[in-house]
Specification:
Rossmann fold, Arc Repressor Mutant, subunit A, 3 domains, two-stranded antiparallel ribbon, 9 strands, binds adenosine-5'-triphosphate, binds magnesium ion
């Protein structure tokens, strides 16, 4: 049993999120559009997939992470629709039959291949936003035909804003989300700045459309018994408390990094405090050049500020004299760098309003001069 997977996780390798799952279940039941927000790799997709699995409702998943233009968005939606039909019809051949009827009148090519049902819209048709409206209306027709609710899950929705010039696609999605009784919309996103613009701006189509669920790191009270349970299964005994505290300390309970470290620890025949530090340092060394390449994309001042925050835990007054001296930057440069780094989720303010580096790997690489 892999208790610490590095990809989207399902029960039993899914820890807690009970409050969020309950709220998602209630929103699914009431068909209330829902937006799930968190920084990268906190567990948005896992949360939604677990919520959907519990609901036992058919769904189409539209993974927008890699879209680069409107055509891509349309194709992702078509691809997800194909999978939905195969799921509802319990097989690609039957789905092809239904799809042929469903998409009648559109310039569409369909085929059954080894991946299931592939659907493509011929080139030179209408604008992608109009075609997306057409597809969503047809999904609505399917839900009516079978008298079944369908969940439409748009993963990494902020990409739509990033790759489109106007808000035509958002407008058609809003139109369907408001009108449809059978379709339930879930959106996730990791760029909080863009999502704020998209969902909280009065002039944008998504203004006040969704119930918003913000997910944070998993709490100590939930992770502790979860890890002890996995230890019991692996080695037939619990870990020492200080070993688990060390895991929490280096990974900062960031779900992805906690899984990276624990999956390595669980490969060994035993696990103690020294192993935690040894394997985490080995991981830092492996990833150091990758982090360096990412940091090369920052301006000099942004990098300087990030380094200073990494070396100093929780700064409450970054523009104050003390931190100006520590970072060797002027107040104005600090202000500029802070706002750029916050927008891009490199840093965040914790519950005590102290600034911290968000990614524990970046923090560790920047803080650890011995690496
Ligand atoms: N509730 C959870 N319990 C245990 N591990 C989890 C949980 N949620 C997520 N994880 C782990 O965290 C990592 C990230 O999960 P996931 O891909 O769902 O996050 P995400 O926010 O959608 O990430 P991305 O920004 O890359 O899309 C994975 O390794 C996953 O196994
Ligand atoms: Mg995801």
């Amino acid at each position: 049993m892999d208790y610490f997977p590095l990809a989207v996780t399902q029960a039993p390798a899914f820890c807690n999120r009970k409050i969020e799952l309950k709220r998602l279940a209630s929103n699914i039941q009431q068909s209330r559009p829902t937006l799930i927000v968190s920084p990268r790799r906190y567990g948005k997709t896992s949360l939604v997939m677990n919520g959907i699995a519990k609901s036992k409702i058919h769904y189409a998943k539209f993974d927008l992470l890699s879209v680069t233009d409107e055509e891509d968005i349309k194709n992702v939606i078509l691809h997800g629709t194909g999978k939905l039909l195969v799921d509802i019809e319990k097989g690609a051949k039957k789905a092809l039959h239904v799809a042929t009827e469903l998409f009648a009148g559109l310039n569409i090519k369909m085929a059954v291949d080894k991946f299931g049902l592939s659907i493509e819209i011929g080139k030179g048709g209408s604008k992608p936003a109009y075609e997306i409206l057409n597809i969503l209306e047809r999904i609505e027709n399917i839900s009516k035909k079978y008298d079944k609710k369908i969940i439409l899950f748009f993963d990494e929705f902020q990409r739509v804003t990033q790759v489109t010039e106007d808000s035509a696609i958002e407008s058609v999605i809003r139109q369907i989300a408001q009108m449809s009784k059978n379709l339930m919309f879930i959106f996730t996103g990791s760029n909080r700045h863009l999502l704020h613009k998209l969902f909280d701006d009065r002039d944008q189509p998504f203004y006040k459309l969704c119930d918003r669920i913000t997910i944070d790191r998993i709490g100590i009270e939930e992770y502790f018994p979860y890890i002890q349970h996995a230890a019991q299964l692996r080695w037939g005994r619990h870990l020492e408390e200080m070993t688990i505290n060390a895991i929490f300390d280096v990974t900062k309970r960031h779900p992805y990094y906690l899984n990276v470290l624990c999956s390595r620890l669980w490969d060994d025949d035993s696990c103690n405090l020294a192993d935690v530090n040894k394997l985490w340092n080995r991981y830092l060394l492996e990833e150091k050049s990758q982090v360096g390449a990412e940091l090369d994309l920052l301006s000099n001042n942004q990098r300087k500020l990030l380094g200073a925050l990494a070396r100093n835990e929780g700064i409450s007054e970054p523009r104050g004299r003390e931190f100006q001296a520590l970072s060797r930057m002027s107040g104005a440069s600090i202000s500029q760098a802070i706002s750029a780094l916050e927008k891009r989720d490199y840093i965040y303010r914790d519950t005590d309003e102290c600034y911290r580096v968000l990614d524990p790997l970046i923090k560790a690489v920047l803080a650890n001069i011995n690496l």
